[in-house]
Structure formats: C-alpha cells, structure tokens
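BUG-394 | component: ligand-complex export | severity: low

The export step for cobalamin jobs runs without errors, but we want the raw record kept on the ticket for reference. Input record follows.
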Amino acid sequence: MDGGEKSDLICAWALEEGFDRAGVAVLDRSEHEEAFERWLERGEHGEMSYLEKRRDVRLDPRLILDGARSAVCVALHYHPLRDSVESEGDLWPRVARYARGSDYHGVMERRLEALAERICAAFPGTGTRLYVDTGPVLERELAARAGIGVAGKNTNLLHPESGSWFLLGELFTTLELRPDPPISDLCGSCTRCLEECPTGAFPEPYRLDSNRCISYWTIEHRGPIPSHVRSSIGDWVFGCDVCQEVCPVNPGRDLWPEGEFHLPKRRADLDLASLLSLERERYVEIFRGTAMKRAKLEGLKRNAAVAMGNRGDKRYLPALSQALCDADPTVRGHAAWALGRIGNEAAVEVLESALGDEEHPVTRGEITASLQVLRDVGGQKQNQAQADLPTRVD
Ligand code: B12
C-alpha cells in the first residue's frame, strides 16, 4: 500500500471513529516561528507560562516522537446553536459553546486512541502519539497544513462549511503518508472580528493579545481579575464566542443538532445566582466531565459575580450579598465589586457589616472601594435631591 492509499484509509477510519474531518500533514518546522516568538516576547500569552516551555518541540513537531513523519489531524464539530440553551436561564447563553456539554478532551482522546489501535494493528511497528489541546503543539498551524481549515484573522481555523465551530486533535505517526492540500484564504478584506471584539483583543489580523481576551480572563486566569478589566468582560461567564459569532464564514444555522456538546438537563437549570452559591459537592456532581472545570469552582463564582455586576440587575442583590460570606476571598471581593456597581442603601449596610468581619486585606480593599462608590453615588443623589428642593422665596 503506498502513502496515498494509507492516507485515504486512515482518514476514512478517523471519520468512522466519529470525527467530522481528517487530513494529513507532513511534519516540518513551523512557518510562523518568528510570529510565535514575538508573541511570547510581547507577553501576549499572559500568565500561560506553559506556552514558553518545550519551545523546541512546539516549533518543530518532528521532535514529538522518534521517527515522526506525519500527523493525522482531526476536527470535531460543536455548535449547538439552537438547543434549549438560548431560552433557558441567564447563564448559559454566556458560556462559550464548546464548553456547554461534555469535555472535548476526553471525547477526542478516546477516538484518537481507537484510531491509533487500528493503525498499529494494520501497520505493525508504527509509532504513534496523540494530543488534544494540551501538548506542545501549534495545533492550528499543523491542522492548516493538513487542509482541515485555514487561519482566520481572529486566529481561529476556518473551514468553508463549518466556519470555526470545531475542535482540533492530532495523531503523530512514524508512517509516511501523503499530505492533504491546504485550503485558501477565507477572510478576504473582511475585518468584522477585529472590529467587534468587545475588548479590542486583536492588535492586528492573525494576532491575539490574551491580556485583552475575555476567554483568557474567564478561563485561564486565577485569582482576582484586575478591576480595570472587569467591566469589559460584560456578562461572559466562561470563554467568549464574539469573534466567531460575527464571522460571516460561520454558518448561522445549526449543522449539528445532536451530540456531546449540548447542554444536558442537569446543568440547564443553573442560573447565575445559583452558580454563585453553588456548594462544592454539587459543583463536582454537575460539572464532572466538562471543560468548565478548568476555571474551578472559585473561578466560575468569581466570573458569575462579575457578570452580575456588569448586568446591573438589582434582582442579583440578594445572591451577591450572600456571596460576601463565601469561603473564597476572591469570590467575596468580586461580589463586593458587583454590589458597588448595582447596589443601593441596603447594599451599603451589607457591605459595612461584611467589612467588620473581613480579615483578608485584598477583600477589605474591595469592600472599602465599593462602599466609597456607593456613598459617592448616594451623596450625589442627595445633592441632586437637595438641589431639586424648592428654594425659599420669602
Ligand atoms: C493558549 C490557547 C488559547 C489562549 C490564546 C489564544 C491564541 N489565539 O493564541 C486563549 C485562552 C485566549 C484561547 C482562547 C480560545 N481558544 Co484556545 N487554545 C490555546 C492553545 C492551547 C494554544 C494556542 C497557541 O499556541 N497560541 C499561540 C499563537 C501565536 O498561536 P496560534 O493562535 O495557534 O497562531 C498560529 C497561527 O495564527 C499562525 N499565524 C501567525 N501569524 C499568521 C499570519 C497569517 C497570515 C497566517 C495565515 C497564520 C498566522 O501561526 C501561529 C503559530 O503557529 C490551543 C491548543 C494548541 N495546543 O494549539 C487552543 C485552541 C487554539 N483554542 C481553541 C478554542 C476553541 C478557543 C476559543 C474559541 C474558546 C472560547 N470560545 O473561548 C477561544 C478563541 C480565542 C481566539 N480568537 O483565539 C481551539 C481552536 C479551534 C479552531 N477552530 O481554531 C484550539 C486549537 C484547541 C483545540 N484543541 O481545539 N486559547
């Protein structure tokens, strides 16, 4: 069997294992080495220091496995556009679509393992190594080489039929396979993603500054979110899809009505207020096997508080007041911040009483700042009320 026949066979197997697309890339050094190095130098990876590690391998995928020659790149569609999500609760529309159902890592790894077994059974002695997301691999560049998609200006890989609503994984092999042809540019002169990113996270096409990306702050960042960043996050609770939602290449219809990425009933009922008060035991129970666990319980609660503060809806006041007693100081601090954004006199009372009990210096600072804001607003209102009083004319 020649390389071409092997490629066809293996890609057909990949589809049988449940992937939506598969292609082959011949391994070679990255063509975007300089762009990647400059991205790191500028610190545009934020605190994701793992991206600085194993740089030799990341930039040269031939080092991944002894004798590695080609990679079978796979794509799995997500995008439950019209499931119950859009109508249920106030939380789920603000969770990135890829994360609403099962964790894609496990789903894709199991399928890649099955593919590797079939390859090794058919071609004994073949070396394989698989990765989904977490390996030292520039997955988008590799998948672009395999014709799985082409880089968009928002840095996501795009395909003419499925847009960017797909996830990537790859199986490195020692087999010599025939590469697939790359896809040509799909962006043309369009710059909608760059213009509509709520935080202006794209300094130029094909470059994302993580320090300005909502996805980075809500998923990757641990601890307090700097106060100047909070208001720009809007009400996203986990990830962000804006640069994909505005992309005209992305289909506006639901291509994949069933599947692992749909929100299951046991989570659909959760709204922002119940997320903010979630007990650890229940969190483990309902978030087991999801990508949202990456943010951890404290991170999800922190993000819920920020989203509430930015929505400014007074109905959130009881949940936020209660969160001032949360076990985690960051959650308490972000709840205090949100109360400062939407609070009233009752919130001042709650914050004052919380300040009396609060020992964590950072959280004390958050409470004090919010009290200041509310008193200033109260003061302004009072001044306004005084100014509106009828003046004596006698
Ligand atoms: C770190 C990371 C992030 C970071 C940084 C994102 C970034 N743009 O780099 C944060 C947390 C912000 C993030 C967010 C998201 N991520 Co992410 N992330 C990764 C991860 C782990 C590494 C990416 C990386 O190496 N970045 C470094 C930059 C420099 O590399 P790059 O973006 O791959 O860029 C390459 C090309 O743009 C190319 N290039 C550079 N200049 C130019 C110029 C031209 C003209 C061309 C053609 C190409 C080109 O060279 C670069 C290096 O090879 C990958 C998995 C992996 N191992 O690759 C997933 C991955 C990229 N993420 C993914 C997803 C789904 C997301 C989100 C959509 C999730 C969400 N909804 O919130 C957002 C999208 C935000 C965005 N617009 O990128 C998918 C993307 C699938 C796809 N269709 O593209 C991946 C591949 C995970 C997976 N296994 O499926 N992510």
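Assignee comment: Attached the raw record above. Confidence is low (pLDDT under 50) at residues 389-394.
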